[in-house]
Amino acid sequence: MKAYVFPGQGSQFEGMGKELYESNAQAKELFEQANESLGWRITDVMFHGSKEELTQTKVTQPAVFLESIIRAKIAGADLPAAVAGHSLGEFTALAAAGALSFEAALLLVSQRAFAMQKACELAESTMAAVLGMEDAEVERICAAITEEMVVPANYNTPRQLVISGSKKGIELAVPLLEAAGAKRVVVLAVGGAFHSPFMKPAQDELSEAIQAAHIETPICPVYQNVHAQAVTDPELIRANLVAQLTSPVRWAQTIENMAADGITEFVEVGGSGAVLRGMIRKINREILTSAL
Predict the structure, then answer these.
(1) Contacts of 206 (CB under 8 A, 6+ apart)
(2) Which residues, in sequence order, are bridge partners of residue 129?
(3) Is 195 a known active-site residue?
(4) N- to C-terminal Cα separation, the chain
(5) Using one digit for the tens of pLDDT, what is the confidence trace for 255-273?
(6) Which of 36, 57, 86, 270: CA 20 to 30 A from 280?
(7) For 96-148, what is each residue's pLDDT tens digit?
(8) 11, 87, 125, 164: which is the annotated catalytic residue?
(9) Spatial separation of the C-alpha atoms in residues 216 and 82, rounded to whole Å
(10) How many angstroms separate the CA atoms of 243 and 44, rounded?
(11) Residue 170 CA: distances (Å) to CA of 127, 156, 160
(12) Catalytic choice (86, 195, 196, 247)
């Protein structure tokens, strides 16, 4: 069985979507619909913007969503047995599975991006990737830092866990993790501590919009980030979307659960087509991967 997986923030690239716009009439129509819905021409930034412009959260998130969902929509009737998305990609997965309409998902993603950007400006916070260490040990060290907030944020692969926290907290965590045997700890160039309590203001702001959104039963199971389980119930999908902003992304567990449920091939839709595939190969080398 085949599953579609959708990348999140960080998979953007200069000129993204331009080839789709110029070569496919349906794609062009969807991009123009997005420009109208947003009230500004996001395609101008996607097609011609600099790397710096594309890395602004308020631009990145709707841009990554659009490039992925339009690529999925023009792929035709090859419907997957399941879908999942990494962080932001979960909204794309829900749109691809018909749980959210194209416009509803786009507007939620845009609201999410602005809310997260505002939350990032409220406190100095950041993230760091911890390589070559067991999850339990990373969790233990994070919990031991009581004077600052540091928490697990992205369980990407076995022995690769991204942590979020205050800038001071991450500064305290790095030498502790290295001393405990981490192969490498890399502080990331991000705007804030995503998937942590630092995103509570964004969660509060977005919650009302998510509660008001019309969510249908998806055409296939959607594996959601907060618990890595397959979901089809619209109200549970809604609750998990709200929780997602302050909860860790359980990506490694998601892929493991999907494989256990019979998924034998993962198709990465959007971005470079290599980010999630690289993670999946580290999670389970027996699984087939491809890109759309």
Answers:
(1) 108, 111, 112, 115, 242, 245
(2) 162, 186
(3) yes
(4) 16
(5) 999 999 999 999 999 988 8
(6) 57
(7) 999 999 999 999 999 999 999 999 999 999 999 999 999 999 999 999 999 99
(8) 87
(9) 16
(10) 32
(11) 7, 18, 16
(12) 195
